[in-house]
Write a structure and sequence with these properties.
heterotrimer, A mainly beta, B alpha+beta, C alpha/beta, A: mainly beta, OB fold (Dihydrolipoamide Acetyltransferase, E2P), five-stranded mixed β-sheet, 2 helices, C: alpha/beta, five-stranded parallel β-sheet, 5 strands, globular, CheW-lke_dom (chain A), CheW (chain A), CheW-like_dom_sf (chain A)
Chain lengths: 153, 738, 121
């Protein structure tokens, strides 16, 4: 959509919908986009971990992004989409409602999110921006995906 | 000879050395346990002997020197002249360790291992002192016999001065073979040829006593030869030709030409013997007379130098003269093929990561093939259609590839265990304790355990085991035993390091933990909790840092390295009896035989190796234990019952388990458990896929797999599940998470 | 020259080196790993000479030589003993078993070939 100058002052984002709101992630971290498929639940896993799916022979954990952000679970049907992202050595799938668009924005158009202590979602949002009158939240993937937990002996 | 082939052979030699060192260790261990015979000792001897032999070829002097002196002592053992005492055994082990060090030093051009001389001196004391490092036996061929001037006939000395007038020396050689020469496969013709190659030769064949042809025994010795040699030849050159036959042939060498002995009537008198027609009945020449080929020009230039000593120091012999002997010996009806018989198989060193990747790919292949098979089945093709037969062939190939790859992947643990044995020897020696290492069990384990194991074993020697005096006072044998075992259990690999020492000093541990602020002074700790304090960072009970294990490398480092492999470590101890560390690792082999079961609508896989048996539940087998737990009555014993669906959070405990299927499993300590599933679907091989650790350890789940339909099924770890289980098979409220 | 030689030694390194040295000289070489194997290989060939180690598993050099000499067709086949030991009593024992000659390891390839020619032509 936007011109593809490999300009480091520009950021390319993949935007998607989640519970009537729009979010986005840095396109550089997106590996692929899959249609919804039923995840095998992981016993005793955190509530936001939907389970695992088979990604071409790899066992991929799927995060219900809505739950992660403190909202109601995504329903999970054929209309949903799983965005496979990679942060560092971790790969995971984000279960969202639908993918919207690819946006290219100059970095200076990103704003820091305001402090809203009551909002759990706040800690996962890196920046805000306005496109065509819509507010788009830029996710901090590192916060969305949990750290490597240490193994209990 | 530093050409490429030699470099290859050299590399191959070092691999052979490792194999020999391994068999040496094995045989020594057998001897140590009293489980040996003469052949065992021979194996020990041959291992050292072969290493020495090969090393000599590459000029690895330090290695040759060490191996030679070790071998000399072993030879005494082999011939029964040396008694095998425990002290000797210790020295043999030590020498074997040093030999290995020497091999590696030779291979990597490293420094000579320290302590070699001391060890050799101790060894040589066993046989009454050796000759020391200079005692390398001189590499000699047979000793020359003394000259004897017995010609059996008159020597016409008048001839001698005439011959001497020529520039070149002249020699007369009388060669009188005994029957043993022929019996040993020697052939006078070759000797004559070799002599002729040295210079100009005239040969006289003398029959000792003419015999009737008919009565002639072809193997009786009736001939001898007199050869007159002219050429730039020394006596040593001539002697050398007779290297192999000095003990079976009388050789007389004199300077100057000899007169023709007047012995046999039917010989010509000319110095040079022409070829006699074979019709002459008296000349029983056996075909030995023929024109000897013209000798090569007198070899004066030294050709190949001979650094490795033997008796003819002058290198006057020329290999080219050998080529002058042009007679072609027709190879006997040898099979035309120069097929060589099976050599020892070649080996390749491969990066472990590459093998892992290969194993993964093979795993993918298996999955995809299973998915294909499923699709084909669903497509409803007739069983003998081309697609089905093709698929069957495909399946067999896949299975073959899988087997081959698995064999590559399975790593023998023996080298690791042998290394541990050496560490025990050195460690116990360093602290003055007597310790023996016992190894047992199934051996397929990862190399990466070497460091944690080393540390644990050193710890055991240093802290776990008491001094011989303390042990004796406690009524224990003065020799401590450390047992190292490796086993497959419940789909995991379990490695145990246990000692029969004093056990964990719990009061002391507790005090140290308090002193270091790791626990509160008034904390109430169970025995197990105190034991686990050892795993805390910064914990060390060593009063003084011992040379071995005290230096800040604690059990916390051991635990984290095991965790990084996806494993667990636990500790148990009994005061006065000993301590045991149990390491449990996830499967290293990527394929598992599993039972596929259905639980609350989910498909799970239970490792077949952990299932003792299966049964169908009927209510009368179930007995209540507590308010919410049940046991099941199995053949006279009561086994705790677990509802997998409930334990995994898929559903609440059921009211009625009638008709449910029960899997009887065993934990690591042998205790049994019964797991309730809804149905058994099938039994099959599955490919193990790891789960990312980011979401923490999931109790009861070892890994995952992808089934034929592409769905993921979790692979259970029954032992882990039971350990973390609630056991609730009655009562309300077990909500499903997620 | 085209001799056919059978060499018997339990060390893979020595076999490799024999192969290198002798085949370079145009000799057809057959190899075996110990005395028993050597006898098996011998069945199918008619070597001009045999080279044998002393210390080998299953059947050592002495046993091997004696067995070879016990075969009619090999009563006079030249046999060279190739070994690191040079003690006189071992030499005598080898001779008693019927060995033709003796070469000490580490062997010098030209010397070995010369020795072969000496006994096999």
């Amino acid at each position: 959509m936007a011109d593809h100058s490999s300009n480091t002052s520009e950021l390319e984002l993949l935007s998607f919908r989640l519970a009537e709101e729009e979010y986005s992630v840095d396109i550089m971290s997106v590996r692929e986009i899959r249609g919804w498929t039923r995840a095998t639940p992981l016993p005793h896993a955190p509530a936001y971990v939907r389970g695992v799916i088979n990604l071409r022979g790899t066992v991929l954990p799927v995060v219900d992004l809505s739950v992660r952000l403190g909202m109601a679970p995504v329903e999970g049907d054929a209309r949903n989409v799983i965005i496979v992202v990679q942060v560092g050595s971790q790969t995971a799938g984000l279960l969202v409602d639908a993918v919207s668009d690819i946006l290219a924005l100059p970095r200076n158009e990103l704003q820091a999110p305001p402090e809203l202590a009551a909002d759990t979602a706040h800690s996962f949002i890196e920046a805000l921006t306005i496109v065509d009158g819509r507010m788009i939240r830029v996710l901090d993937l590192g916060a969305v995906l949990p750290d490597e937990a240490s193994e209990a002996a | 000879m530093a050409t490429d082939p030699m470099a290859e052979i050299r590399a191959s030699f070092f691999i052979e050395c490792e194999e020999l060192l391994e068999s040496l260790q094995d045989a020594l261990s057998d001897m140590d346990e009293g489980n040996y015979d003469n052949e065992t000792i021979n194996v020990v001897f041959r291992a050292v002997h072969s290493i020495k032999g090969g090393a000599g070829a590459f000029g690895l002097d330090a290695l040759v020197g060490f191996a030679h002196r070790y071998e000399t002592v072993l030879d005494e053992l082999r011939s029964g002249r040396l008694e095998l005492t425990p002290e000797a055994m210790k020295l043999f082990f030590h020498a074997a360790d040093l030999l290995g060090d020497h091999v590696r030093a030779a291979r990597d051009a490293g420094p000579v291992p320290p302590g070699s001389e001391e060890c050799l001196v101790e060894l040589e004391k066993l046989i009454g002192g050796g000759a020391g490092p200079a005692a390398e036996e001189e590499v000699t061929d047979f000793q020359p016999m003394g000259l004897s001037f017995d010609f059996g006939g008159a020597l016409d000395e008048d001839l001698a001065p005439e011959e001497a007038a020529s520039e070149l020396p002249v020699w007369t050689v009388v060669m009188r073979p005994s029957a043993a020469l022929y019996a040993s496969g020697n052939e006078p013709l070759h000797l004559l040829r070799a002599l002729a190659a040295l210079g100009e030769a005239s040969v006289l064949c003398i029959e000792d006593s003419p015999a009737d042809l008919d009565a002639l025994d072809p193997e009786a010795v009736t001939l001898h030869w007199q050869i007159t040699l002219t050429g730039d030849i020394t006596e040593a050159d001539i002697r050398e030709v007779f290297d192999f036959v000095e003990d079976v042939c009388q050789i007389d060498i004199t300077e100057g030409a000899a007169g023709l002995p007047d012995l046999a009537p039917a010989l010509s008198s000319a110095p040079t013997l022409a070829a006699l027609p074979d019709s002459a009945p008296e000349d029983t020449g056996f075909g030995f007379f023929e024109d000897l080929p013209a000798p090569a020009p007198a070899p004066s230039a030294a050709s190949a130098p001979e650094p490795s000593a033997p008796p003819a120091p002058d290198s006057a012999e020329a290999p080219e003269s050998a080529a002058a002997v042009s007679a072609v010996i027709a190879p006997a009806a040898a099979a035309a093929s120069s097929k060589e018989h099976a050599e020892a198989s070649a080996t390749v060193r491969v990066d472990l990561d590459r093998i892992d990747r290969l194993v993964n790919l093979v795993g993918e292949l298996v999955i995809n093939q299973a998915m294909l098979a499923q699709s084909v089945a669903e497509a409803g093709l007739p069983p003998n259609s081309a697609v089905m037969t093709g698929l069957e062939a495909f399946m067999m190939l896949t299975r073959d590839i899988q087997d081959s790859v698995m064999m590559i992947r399975a790593q023998p643990v023996k080298p690791l265990f042998q290394r541990m044995a050496r560490i025990v020897r050195e460690a116990s020696h360093a602290v003055g304790k007597e310790v023996r290492l016992r190894t047992e069990g199934d051996k397929t384990v990862i190399e990466r355990l070497a460091d944690p194991l080393t540390h644990m074993i050193r710890n055991a020697v240093d802290h776990g085991l008491e001094t011989p005096d303390t042990r004796a006072a406690a009524g224990k044998p003065t020799e401590g035993v450390i047992t190292l075992s490796a086993q497959h259990r419940s789909g995991r690999v379990v490695i145990e390091v246990s000692d029969d020492g004093a056990g964990i000093n719990r009061p002391k541990v507790r005090d140290i933990a308090i002193a270091k602020g790791l626990v509160a002074p008034d904390a109430q700790l169970s025995d197990a909790e105190i034991d686990n304090l050892l795993f805390l960072p910064g914990f060390s009970t060593a009063d003084k840092v011992s040379a071995l294990s005290g230096r800040g490398v604690g059990m916390d480092v051991v635990r984290s390295s095991i965790q990084s492999l996806g494993g667990r470590i636990s500790i148990s101890s009994e005061p006065g009896k000993g301590t045991r560390f149990s390491i449990s690792l996830p499967l290293t082999l990527a394929v598992l035989d599993g039972m596929v079961v259905s639980v609350a609508g989910e498909t799970l896989v239970v490792p077949l190796s952990s299932i003792l048996e299966t049964a169908t539940l009927s209510s009368e087998d179930i007995r209540a234990l507590g308010p919410e737990t049940n046991v099941i009555h199995v053949r006279g014993a009561f086994v705790p019952l677990y509802d997998l669906g409930a334990e995994l959070g898929y559903r609440c405990p059921r009211a009625n388990y009638e008709g449910g299927i029960v899997l009887l499993t065993a934990q690591e300590n042998g205790a049994r458990s019964a797991l309730i599933v809804d149905a058994i679907l099938e039994q099959r091989q599955v490919v193990i896929k790891g789960l990312q650790r980011s979401y923490g350890h999931i109790p009861g789940v070892a890994a995952a797999t992808i089934l034929g339909d592409g769905q993921i099924a979790l692979i259970l770890d029954p032992a882990d599940l039971v350990q973390n289980a609630s056991g609730r098979t009655r009562g309300p409220n077990l909500a499903l998470a997620g | 020259m085209s001799l056919t030689v059978l060499a018997v030694d339990d060390s893979r390194t020595i076999r490799d080196m024999l192969k290198l040295a002798l085949t370079e000289a145009g000799i057809t070489l057959h190899l075996a790993e110990d005395g028993v194997h050597g006898l098996e290989v011998l069945e199918g060939i008619a070597p001009d000479a045999i080279i044998s180690d002393i210390n080998m598993p299953r059947l050592d050099g002495f046993g091997f030589i004696e067995a070879v000499r016990g075969q009619d067709k090999h009563r006079a086949t030249p046999i060279l003993v190739l070994t690191t030991e040079s003690a006189p009593e071992l030499k005598a024992r080898a001779r008693a078993a019927g060995a033709t000659g003796w070469i000490v390891k580490p062997f010098d390839p030209p010397k070995l070939i010369k020795a072969l020619q000496m006994v096999a032509g």
